[in-house]
């Protein structure tokens, strides 16, 4: 399914390679519209909703649009390095941004009571309880890239449009399952303690580094479709493959470090808030004792 990329045209050629795929575009517009409708409903009811949450969610949708509709998607068909950028957007950018948008919390607050009860029931369903387990999320987050890159599935996706779409859905779903309890604020049947969140992120780094190293040290192109492309793409497939590995290692680990800083900051805010509640409670008790003694 390699894209027909013109060999000349410079920056304009690159910027013109947008793909307004109907299903993807409909998904993004629907998600954005539902989120906006929820915030509008709360505003009309004079119930507060953080603008920051809305910005995070919009940024997540934008990251998905860049990954799936922009020239990134067009050039991913002929460049493994660009394809790696696409996968990093689908796993390390869009999912945590969407999770920070707290769409489940918004749905619970904005929905009518019968709908909110159904959402709450769904959150307690066996499937959601299983997927919300942080160990399951970590295994999917680490395992999906290994299975796809180490076997024939990646090359199949380069030659099959339906499988390519399924592969993108798999990347995104696994990443959403991982990030929701790690960085999100929505209700979770498996609340994850802050130290466990930091441990999960720190363990994801060596797993990603190992996969990047395996790709970089390969002495031949791993995917025949890239190697068989017309010049100049096929001739530099091995060089491009090593660039993809470097991108995975540098950008991937940097994104995880940033996520650890975000989690650490949230952990500190949570501890500070808990300490203030303890101090306020002690102040009230002291005030009551003083009043009683006087």
What's the structural blueprint in terms of helices and strands?
Layout: H1 10-15, H2 22-44, H3 51-69, H4 71-76, H5 80-100, H6 103-110, H7 113-123, H8 126-131, H9 134-150, H10 153-159, H11 161-183, H12 194-216, H13 224-227, H14 237-293
Helix pairs in contact: 2-3, 2-6, 3-5, 5-11, 5-14, 6-7, 9-11, 9-12, 10-11, 12-14
Brief summary of the model shown:
The protein has 14 helices and no strands. The protein has helices at residues 10-15, 22-44, 51-69, 71-76, 80-100, 103-110, 113-123, 126-131, 134-150, 153-159, 161-183, 194-216, 224-227, 237-293.
Question: What do you see in this structure?
Answer:
The protein is mostly helical. The chain has one domain (16-287). 79% of the residues lie in helices and 0% in strands. The chain has helices at 10-15, 22-44, 51-69, 71-76, 80-100, 103-110, 113-123, 126-131, 134-150, 153-159, 161-183, 194-216, 224-227, 237-293. Helix 2 (22-44) packs across helix 6 (103-110), helix 3 (51-69) packs antiparallel against helix 5 (80-100) and helix 6 packs antiparallel against helix 7 (113-123). The longest helix is centred in the last third of the chain and has 57 residues, at 237-293. The protein is elongated. The protein starts with 9 loop residues before the first helix and ends with a helix.
Any key phrases for this structure?
294 residues; 14 helices; single chain; elongated
Largest sheet: none
Tell me the domain tally: 1
| Overall morphology | elongated
Query: What's the β-strand tally?
Result: 0
For the record, give the distance between the C-alpha atoms at the N and C termini, rounded to a whole number.
Answer: 84 Å
Low-pLDDT segments, ≥5 res: 1-9
Q: What does the average pLDDT come to? A: 89
- Helix count from the secondary structure assignment: 14
- Measured by DSSP, the beta-strand proportion falls in under 5%
Helix content: over 70%
Structural class: mainly alpha
Radius of gyration: 23 Å
């Amino acid at each position: 399914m390699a894209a027909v990329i013109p060999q000349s045209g410079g920056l304009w050629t690159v910027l013109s390679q947008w793909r307004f795929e109907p299903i993807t575009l409909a998904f993004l517009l629907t998600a954005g519209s539902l989120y906006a409708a929820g915030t509008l409903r709360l505003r009309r009811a004079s119930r507060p909703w953080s603008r920051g949450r809305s910005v995070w969610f919009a940024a997540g949708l934008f990251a998905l649009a860049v990954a799936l509709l922009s020239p990134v998607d067009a050039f991913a068909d002929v460049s493994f390095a660009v394809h790696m950028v696409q996968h990093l957007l689908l796993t390390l950018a869009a999912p945590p941004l969407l999770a920070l948008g707290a769409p489940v919390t918004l749905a619970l607050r904005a929905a009518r009571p019968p709908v909110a009860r159904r959402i709450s029931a769904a959150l307690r369903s066996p499937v959601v309880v299983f997927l919300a387990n942080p160990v399951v999320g970590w295994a999917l987050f680490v395992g999906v890239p290994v299975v796809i890159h180490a076997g024939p599935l990646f090359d199949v996706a380069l030659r099959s449009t339906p499988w390519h779409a399924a592969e993108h859905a798999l990347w995104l779903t696994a990443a959403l399952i991982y990030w929701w309890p790690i960085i999100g604020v929505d209700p979770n049947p498996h609340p994850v303690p802050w130290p466990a969140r930091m441990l999960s992120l720190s363990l994801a780094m060596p797993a990603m580094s190992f996969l990047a190293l395996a790709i970089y040290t390969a002495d031949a192109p791993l995917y025949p479709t890239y190697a068989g492309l017309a010049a100049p793409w096929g001739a530099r497939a091995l060089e491009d493959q090593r660039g993809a590995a470097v991108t995975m290692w540098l950008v991937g680990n940097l994104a995880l470090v940033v996520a650890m800083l975000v989690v650490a900051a949230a952990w500190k805010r949570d501890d500070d808030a808990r300490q203030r509640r303890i101090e306020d409670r002690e102040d009230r008790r002291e005030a009551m004792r003083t009043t009683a003694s006087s």
